[in-house]
Amino acid sequence: MQRYVVIDLETTGNNPAKTDKIIEIGIVVIEQDTIVDSYSTLLHPNKEIPAFITNLTGISNEDVADAPLFENIADEVTAMFENSYLIAHNVPFDLGFLNGELTKSDRKKLKNPVLDTVELARILFPSAPSYKLNQLTDYLQINHENPHRALSDAFVTAKLFLKLKEKLASLPYETLEQLLRLEKWLKSDAYALFNYYKEQNVFVEKNDEIAIYQGLAYRRMNHLEKEDNVMDLSFGDYLDSIYESNGSLEKNLSFYEKRAGQREMSEMIFDAFQTRQHALIEAETGTGKSLAYLLPAIYDAVSTHKRVVISTYTTQLQTQLLEEEIPLIRRLIPFPFRVALLKGKGHYISLEKLHQELVEPLQSNYDIALTVAMLLVWLTETKTGDVDEIQLPSSGYLFFRRISADMEEGVDPSSQWFYRSHYQYAKKRAQQAHIVITNHALLCTDIFHPSSLLPVYERAIIDEAHHFDATVSKHYGLKLDYMHMHYTLNQLGRTDEQKLVHTILSHYPSALSEETKVLWNKLLDDTRYETDDLFRYLFQYVSKVRKGDKSFSDIGRTQYRFEANKEDQNKWTVIKEMVSRVCLHLRDLVHGLVMIEAELRVNQLHQEDKEKLLASAERLQIFIDQLEQFFLVEDSAQEVKWMEIEAYGAKNAVYLYSEPTDIANLLTDVFFSVKESIVLTSATLTIENSFQYIVERLGLQTENPLTKKIASPFSYADQVQLMVPNDFPTITSGHNDEFIHATCEAVLSLAEITNGRMLVLFTSYDMLRRSHSLLKELMENDTYALFAQGISSGSRERLKKNFQTFDKAILLGTSSFWEGVDIPGEDLSCLVIVRLPFQPPDHPVLEAKSKFLKEQGKNPFMQYALPNAVIRFKQGFGRLIRSSSDRGIVFICDSRIITARYGKYFIRSIPKVPLFFDTTHELMNRAEKWF
């Protein structure tokens, strides 16, 4: 069957089962890989077309006034699908509507084989940034003239399908063979398509870039060659040739503006390296700090033959350095250099573990089948094996954990898999690189557990350094949750469940005694029961002690700090007994795994099966150690422990955390005193132009670091107006309805002036949720597209992109939206800060650190809570102006910035801008005039 019919519909909404109707049909016919026919018509839906659909599609009620009803064209449409595949971009949507209308018109439903281009694109283009039709066509450079019109969408879907066929034709025989095994779980009827290209590819000449091992096809890892450069250029001449007039920057960037602060920062970093000192540099927005620190780092590494490590907090910045800054620098400087990106083992795929999964009968569902299919195609493309290159389905990440390099216990260097390990290759690249880019998490793991994760280094640059101490605390602390334990126990499985123990036993039929099997099943059932029981009890415990608490953290969880000697002793004794029981059962399970291993050893146990059993025993032992540390070991003043429960989550969704109360001495001892030169940089390190707070927090007092604040090149006084209303209701404990109402009214008034294009930052998820609900209520005719973190679906990046797609949009964010979100130009004209970003006073870490500081005779508010809030506020403020042509309003609903004694610390920590403290009415008039 070589006839494919592509369909796209425009409708009045998303729900055919209710009252939504088709308003336009577009059909395109493909035969012999050529578009041979097309069909299009508007339809009368017998109802009003909603305004937002008219905005999206351009189809109005007038357009369809004289259009036919569906039943008038039903036979003509169904005739086009005879003896054909039906193709759509999201088949369930289009076919659901079409069959719904056919049923209502007393016609038979279509039962054609289907091909879904969303699903096939996910499999065949696993690195695409998005699978929405317009973003996918951009990625594949398919011209899309009229998005959201049925015939145009059908044409580009047809062109997309032809691209998918081209991709299939390029895949190795082995990959197509594996895809055929997975086809039965897919929504698309793709067997004939996959099989056709598999048979064609038997005769295709082998691609030199693709290697095949044990039935797996993967892209070869490049042979690493190390060449050492001789530096014959002084650092001054090097910088002159880049930064000064007629230098390489000016020649390579058409929009280049010289920034004095950029060269100043490069020189200071080089000085710190030369004098073996640590340094703190605050480089305000617009400095161009990534380039400013990369240039001296590369010069130093190449001239001294000593690598420099660069650590960032977000993967977004790592990607930016690798994909934007490094290629630019290669054009700017006259000598070659080597750069490597290194992440934790869990980021890299293990070919060995994937192969082991594929040789067993795959215990699959749709998400796992889709995940494996995506990974198989991605392996033929990826040079790194880093899972961050692709977007797996949500439960696909659980599967990836099983096949990541994290699961490669004790890889044997003489093994054939060792030479095919993406993680080992990444480590090797890092060992030969001048610059190693990593993240704070891996850097911290390396600091506290020097297990040769990072190659040896003496100099490092830590970007986004205002996060460094929090990452250190997390890594030195513990984290345990029910889901993780439940998942691990489930993966082990009973002997009659298709999981790890069953799979291993299937390799040695009747090798294990019936008695041991019965014992194992009982041990596992008991451990699952006891674990569930413990976490349900902990959930109820937190619910009761925090009864009526509405101050959810910014992630929508209730937090409770626990101290054994201050808890209700009767209930705490019950908890300790339950924990002891769980630990006892986990020990029995460890013993059970060792017993299984011993019985199977008699039958020549395979090395990989032995490794799996022992690795599982190690993971269970870690749970025992963690539970004992949380509940059975005496509390220490140096440590804070707390629990979090999902406010509206499952009744056993409990998360346990512990962190040190102070990491300053720790960092001094194990990091700053042993490294030659560490440079810490960020746009937000100072408070009132002083570095004192960050110096004390990181334990740098004795190190006398160099410090420098580099001012932004932007003219904030001309680009920003700071407005604070003096007539907002005050928030009293538990009564913030009036404040939320005033905030929402101000947001909508400002939105009228700025045409939306507004980011609203909250400090509490609960307040964000309630404001979102009220804004929807107050807004007439959905004037503005409203996006809210945790409510609208999608990641932070996806919400930002959706926000930028609409002309009139408002974006509500909390937590991660206070920083790292860049929305330059006219897309963002107004920033609303709802409350000054103080952590809630009962936040577990804040409580514990406050107590610790009090005991040292210090003021916890002035030395911890306030500096933290000021740094967060500076991050939020920095969202508005991202270029010299941006202008906008920062509207702060919290009058404490003016009326409280500490307000001046916030004002003096941001660039000088015109400040207005007036009635909301007057501020709106001023905003209107200014725009």
Structure summary:
46% of the residues lie in helices and 14% in strands.
Write up this protein.
- With 931 residues, the protein is α/β, with parallel strands linked by helices.
- Among the domains are: 3-170, Nucleotidyltransferase, domain 5 (2-Layer Sandwich), CATH 3.30.420.10; 495-660, no CATH class; 716-930, 3-Layer(aba) Sandwich (Rossmann fold), CATH 3.40.50.300.
- Helices cover 46% and strands 14% of the residues.
- The protein contains 35 helices and 25 strands.
- The strands form five sheets. A seven-stranded parallel sheet has the order 10-11-9-12-17-8-18. A seven-stranded parallel sheet has the order 21-22-20-23-24-19-25, with helices on both faces. The chain has a five-stranded mixed sheet with strand order 3-2-1-4-5, with helices on both faces.
- Strand 6 and strand 7 (216-219) form a beta hairpin.
- The longest helix is centred in the middle third of the chain and has 33 residues, at 569-601.
- It starts with a strand and ends with a helix.
- The mean pLDDT is 89.
